[in-house]
Amino acid sequence: MLTFFAILVLLALFMAMRMPIAFAMGLTGFFGLALELGLRPALAVLERTFFDSSSSFILVAIPLFILMAELLTAGDVTRRAIIACQGWIGHVKGGLAMATVGASVILAALVGSSTASTAAMSASAFPEMRNHNYSQRLAAAVVSVGGTLAVVVPPSIVLVVYGVLTETSIGKLFIAGIIPGLLTATGLAVVIKLIAHTTDQAPKGAPFELGKAVKASRHVLPMILLMVLVIGAIYGGIASPSEAAALGVMGSLIIVIFQRTLSFANFNRSVSGAIRATVMIVAIVACSAIFSNYLAFTRITHALLEFVATTSLPPAVIMGFIVVLLLVMGMFMDQLAILSLAMPLAFPTAMALDFDPVWFGIVVTKTVEIGLLTPPLGLNAYVAAAQTGVPLGKIFRGILPFLAMEILILVLLLCFPQITLWLPGLMLR
Which domain holds residue 210? Predict the structure, then answer.
């Protein structure tokens, strides 16, 4: 047990030194295995674990979904999505902010990365809202919370990583994220509407013009059809997530070529960006597996499962403790770091309590999503502050009412699992 606590202290030390979470977990896991088994057996475990975890076929979906997002982002999708949503609802009070949320849903379904979505919206939607006399606080808060939709709305990279780490069906996770994602977007729109009617932070936009709205939607329609095709192929059992991701890459390439929005230089940047992101994620998955192996050898996971099996605490209380712990971790860490650190212990505990792995995955990702908005880290708020120049404190104050809505939706997902499980239950396979 002393060795285990020493390894935890070493992990905390590496993280305090700002070592990437993948390397911190991999090194501490290897050191722990070396102390438990000896150097040569630890090297053998390291070799087998790294190969097995990084050669899984399901990991193919990660670079493909990232490449699809990179291609569409390079193809000017963000600006066009905002213009299209603005054309339909920008005329009402607070409509431009709600249009930003709508565009964030489209972007979330294309990008899969919360920070990338926030950065894109900060560069395009924030100036548009400021030009229409929206307050700095509301405009920056909206682009921050809108970016979090990429965590839940499929094809979320966080859901893919959770599926790989826990061996849960990624197809079912994608489908399960649809209703919670749309519910979150609706909740954010309700908050915007309330702010618009009780303050002067969100004025009306230009009068509605049907022709202008239809014209603006023409450029976005192919992207929406592509996402319906990708998710529909998974839902109908026609394609696996990896096959659907390949379909998405092909479709996105066809769209940007026909719309003539992708230069050769942007294509190179898209491929390079997809490679960098994929290497980082695969490193996290592999190093998390090394740390999980160390936990297995120390029997810490087994001891925790025995405690869960013999404790008199209700499952709801233990689940509440897990959620609170993840929320606290979200105040200091990014979403992939939380998954890689928490899932080796949290997931077996949830399974021992007979919770559904798909439902648990959506709850975890929703909790992680909230962590992107909470100080002191609040990664999305930092990204928005860097892009917009709005003071961080002002953004966090603007986020507060949205944060209350996010927590309310999390409570609904916890209390009513069918919100999450209804659509996956209808899948053909």
Answer: 20-28+54-291+298-425
